Amino acid sequence: MKRIVVLTGAGISAESGISTFRDASGLWRNYRFEELATPEAWDRNPELVMEFYNMRRKQLFEVEPNAAHYALVELEEKYDVHIITQNVDDLHERAGSTNVLHLHGELKKARSTVAPNLVYELDRWELKIGDKCEKGSQLRPHIVWFGEAVPMIGPAAEISSTADIFIIIGTSLVVYPAAGLTDYAKPDIPKFYIDPGASYAGGISNLTIIQKKAGEGVPEIVNSLMKR
Ligand code: OAD
Description:
single chain, alpha/beta, Rossmann fold, SIR2/SIRT2 'Small Domain', 2 domains, three-stranded antiparallel β-sheet, binds 2'-O-acetyl adenosine-5-diphosphoribose
């Protein structure tokens, strides 16, 4: 079975109603990430950080996967599919994808502030100051903030290096180390980049750019891969 590695970003969930970060109405156009998504922000004002992620978690309970998430599930009938997502939503899992690696954490999980390996599933949208881990310490959102290490980058690089086909969907490719994963893919394998704002020309070998929304472009590429 050929292996397809898919790197996804906020754009794949845009048509589900989740904001991206850097588009005109993106989150980092309306909020300062320094005040919401860094360890320093958490130290300064944990209530504000908590509220920001609570808002986003609440929204996640109200949205559904879209045609692009579902199309990737279909690929599993013929290929060994590995999704590496920068997204903290769970829309790939809810659509039915089997192998999903989250590079930047997961919105529906919380973790201990003293023992990072203590991670808890949240079945509600609200995490509060005073919610504690089993060791008695405050829980924080299970998100990789700016300035923090990306623990899953090693396994993601390893998977990328074994791809027979590499698909990039809905990401501005500006945040590292995630954006550097394409460097691990073998130069000669086919690579596709589906994003209406994609303008990236250099650097990635054997790349086909598809300037379409994920809801249209992903089902199309999946159809053509299923016919190969
Ligand atoms: P960005 O907001 O930087 O980029 C979103 C991309 O999605 C852009 O290239 C858009 O052109 C594209 N896009 C918009 N609508 C789309 C659609 N309907 N279909 C397909 N593509 C569409 O988001 P990311 O690249 O995911 O990190 O950002 C990377 C990281 O920066 C995020 O994981 C987040 C952020 O800070 C953390 O929160 C740690």
